[in-house]
Amino acid sequence: MRQTRIKLVANTRPIGRVLLACMVLGFASLIAAGIAAAWLTGRNQEHVRWVNHTYEVELAIAQASIAIEQGETPRRGYLITRAPIYLDTYLANRAKQPATLARVSTLTADNPRQRASYARLVALVADLQRQRDLTVSLVREGRGREAIALFFAETDAKRMMTIRRLAAHMAQEERRLLKIRDADQVRSVRAFYIVLGIAGLILLVVAILSVTTVMRYTRDLTRSRDSLNTLNETLEEQVAERTADLSLANDEIQRFAYIVSHDLRSPLVNVMGFTAELAATVAPLEELLERAEATAPEIVTEDARLAVREDLPEAVGFIRTSTQKMDRLINAILKLSREGRRVIAPERLDVAEIVANICGSMQHIIDDRGATVSVEGTIPGLVSDRLAIEQILSNLIENATKYLKPGRPGVITVSGHEERGRVVLSVADNGRGIDTRDHARVFDLFRRSGAQDQPGEGIGLAHVRALAYRLGGTIDLASELGEGATFRLNLPKTLTVQDPKA
Asked: Crossing angle, helix 2-70 and helix 156-295, to 10 degrees?
């Protein structure tokens, strides 16, 4: 199941990257299309404005041309008939011309070519208007013959033709600009459609790639789900088989440890017995040596004297020390073996009460070593094996009192808290600490850390770890040299023991 999960995670990562890349490309395409649409909208608005401007210019030029030409008819009528209505019409028309020309000037102010044409137009109109005003003035003064003679002599028609051509030229200039702007608009629309097509193509590719990726991922999920279903169908059977195998292996290990310990004890008992006999022979030999020195000193050599009084007692002492240590090790191994065979009996425990009982049973040791043990805070309730918890805590507390830092009173605190449905018990001290390189090895059998100035065989923490495992928990260590140590026991809040017959 773990391999299947790892495979799913491994497959998910590249698929996630592909989908993320597709999303980025899709959003980038949409953003590009939006920017292109906004740009084209702006261009369209600009083009519409310039089209309207062209029409306004053409209309203004046409209105100015009409106003200029309309001024000629009332003037001629007034010259012929001298009727006031023609004069009034002429004067009204003359008053409108500056406004129409000003309109043309305003609309063509941004075009230098149009400005030049406008300047010529204004000059021509001004010249024409002066000629017309002169003839009208002569008629009003009663000099009609002079006005008519001047009318026939003037080049009014030629001026009008020039004005008409100039107005047509200005209108043609606006149409030329309109064509250029139309061409720009066509190019803008073409560019927009190109960008839109590219964005659409990218979106299509992204969609195809996304669908393909999702389909492949779905196919992998289906295949993995089928594998998980197959695995789950046989999981209980596999767990039962492996549990049975582990139980058999554990029983074999325990029997092996018991047999080895028993077989080691037999020769050890013999060695201890013969060592006692050797020790018993030391006193008669020394007594015999003393009589020999008193009666016949010449037969007593220095080697014999050293052998009886120093070498033999020292050798017997070494043998006794070694056999005693071997006896303690064998007893520890037998204890571990018996603990593995002991039936776990979970019950509701008050950890603070257990700590108090442990401290009461070893109070003389705590006092002699100058330490204090206290419970910090409220320890959560726990359902577990009482004997195992007592052995674990007593071992940790005793170790904490044993490895104090010289010159500093020992302070040992026991605390606990809940963490993700489990109970974490901590035993902290301010002792001499444990080197970080030895954090793992101190839990191994017969392994110790630091100065070997305290009695022990290196079995206690190994026993603690074995008990923690049997209770469904773990134990770890946080410590630095000179800064004390904290052992953390992580246990299930409620220990569930499977029925071995199930």
From this structure: 160
Least confident window among 55-64, 78-87, 264-273, 474-483 = 264-273
CB of 57 closer than 8 Å to CB of 49: no
Cα radius of gyration (the chain): 58
Helical (H) or strand (E) element with 254: helix 156-295
47 and 108 in contact (C-beta within 8 Å)? no
Comparing C-alpha atoms, which of 496, 492, 483, 470 is closest to residue 392?
Answer: 470
The alpha-helical segments, DSSP class H, found in 82-155 are 84-107, 112-140, 144-153
If DSSP codes are grouped into helix, strand and coil, which group holds residue 195? helix
SS3 of residue 207 by DSSP: helix
Q: Which helix (H) or strand (E) is 477 found in, with range? A: strand 474-479
CA distance 335 to 319: 24
Q: Is 2.60.40.420 the CATH classification of the domain at 344-492?
A: no
Confidence label for 274 from pLDDT (cuts 50, 70 and 90): low
Question: If you write DSSP's letter for every residue of 360-422 in order, what string do you get?
Answer: HHTHHHHHHTTEEEEE-S-PPPEEEEHHHHHHHHHHHHHHHHHSPPTTS-EEEEEEEEEETTE
Burial class (CB in 10 A: 0-12, 13-18, 19+), 451: exposed
pLDDT tens, residue by residue, 108-142: 888 888 888 888 888 888 887 888 888 888 888 88
Q: How far apart are CA 332 and CA 123, in angstroms?
A: 127
| Max mean pLDDT range (152-156, 289-293, 303-307, 360-364) | 360-364
For residues 120 and 101, the answer to whether their CB atoms sit within 8 Å is: no
Q: What residue segments make up the domains of the chain, in order of their start? A: 2-218, 241-339, 344-492
| DSSP strands (E only) in 297-352 | 346-349
Which helix (H) or strand (E) is 478 found in, with range?
A: strand 474-479
Looking at mean pLDDT, say which of 64-68, 148-152, 420-424 comes out highest.
420-424
Q: Residue 10's pLDDT band (boundaries 50, 70, 90)?
A: very low
Amino acid 26 reads G
Task: Determine phi and psi for 44, rounding to 5 degrees.
Answer: -65, -45
